Amino acid sequence: MNEKYQIVIGLEVHAQLLTKSKLFSGDSIAFGAEPNTQVSPVSLAHPGTLPVMNKEVINLAVKLGIALNCSINQHNYFARKNYFYPDLPKGYQVSQHTDPICIGGHLTINGSNGEKKVLLNRIHMEEDAGKSIHDLEENYSCIDLNRAGTPLLEIVTEPCLHSSEEAFLFLTDLRKLVRWLNVCDGNMEEGSMRCDANISIRPVGETKLGTRVEVKNLNSIRNVKKAIEVEAERLIQLAENNEPVLQQTRSFDADKGTTFALRSKEEADDYRYFPEPDLPAFFISNEHIEAIKADMPVMPDVLQKKYREDYGLSQYDAAAICSDKENATYYEQLISGNKHYKAAANWMLGPLKAWCNENSIEIPQFPLAPVSIAALIDFTESGKVSFNVASTKILAAMINNNAGDPSEIASSLNLLQECDESTVVAWVKETLANMPDKVKEYHSGKKNLLGLFAGQVKKLSQGKADMQLVNKILTEELNK
Questions:
Q1: Residue 20 to residues 42, 65, 161: CA-CA distances in angstroms?
Q2: Which of 84, 95, 338, 426 is the most buried (most CB within 10 A)?
Q3: What pLDDT score was predicted for residue 419?
Q4: Contact (Cβ atoms closer than 8 angstroms) between residue 143 and residue 87
């Protein structure tokens, strides 16, 4: 990227809320239904119908606002945003305009340049439009109104992002957060989280914003990153060629890796906002806000800090466990009643994750309950079996038998480690006696031969020797 220019990015993220019904009617919002089957006279805007507010939407908006350090606006009302489009049954969208429910706030990201607070402008509530489908009929566009009236939160950042990497990190962390709070499932492929990117460039050192273009309806975080890179490069080429930048709405072709113009926006759209007359203004009390705050889960950054400072986990392990609320819950169940904090993390991010990847499932869907895995971890930490044996043979047997006692399985498969010191001493002495030349080399300075000796003892014992004890006795015998 040309170092003469600074990229300026602002994001608008639409998050579909995890309610059972629409914003102003009882219609279901479940994904995957046949077109135009989740509608009613209200969502179809039949004359004489009146909207009724879904209170859960307010609760979810406040919850997300608290998590994103926003000020909660207690006096709220809805407005009509007037525009005409085939998938908008009423001819207007019910949204918030001058008084969004959440004001300001920030989300902290960690990138290659360190920690950064991404500033938010607002979060507001609104209803979704329907969906236009252009590839089913050759000569017609089809309209599916199942999505019309679905509750959304629009999260709007300030124009404070300056690279595709920062946008990628922000969206990744935001998606993790809305999932953690059970506000939105974050599934961009199904359209329940969508992003528009406003992009402009300016000479380095300039403070005035350049002419922006908006790239609409990006359906994956990777596509957001790629679209920003492609569009920023296009804008720089225009600037280098002294060509004007047109204020446009554009789309991104992921297959070709290009953006293309949808329409020009030389003037601001006039949506003729005015207060929605069919919905009363509403007030959110301090008590209501405090009740929502009290019911919120521990935030992932707080949990990560606890895992690092109290449990001794690495930053990588703590972040991996806290990447998803269900993963963190599973980990908490693994360490319930014991203090095998590091061992539990190693098991969860090692053999359990590997098995899940091979079987295309997530860790919370692992076939053994956390209590069974915790018992296996406890048994392994007792030193009666090696980690390698436990994580392969015993774990496999437990999966095949739908759990079982790890100790009994180890006994039945003859897998218990030999911890009797006299037996291990005999194996060590036999190994050294069979390798006199290597013993001489060890004494002449080749200390790395210790691993060779240990491997031979393991082979002689058919894998039963306690390797910690083997290394201790080997060192003693070789240093006599």
A1: 16, 21, 34
A2: 95
A3: 64
A4: yes
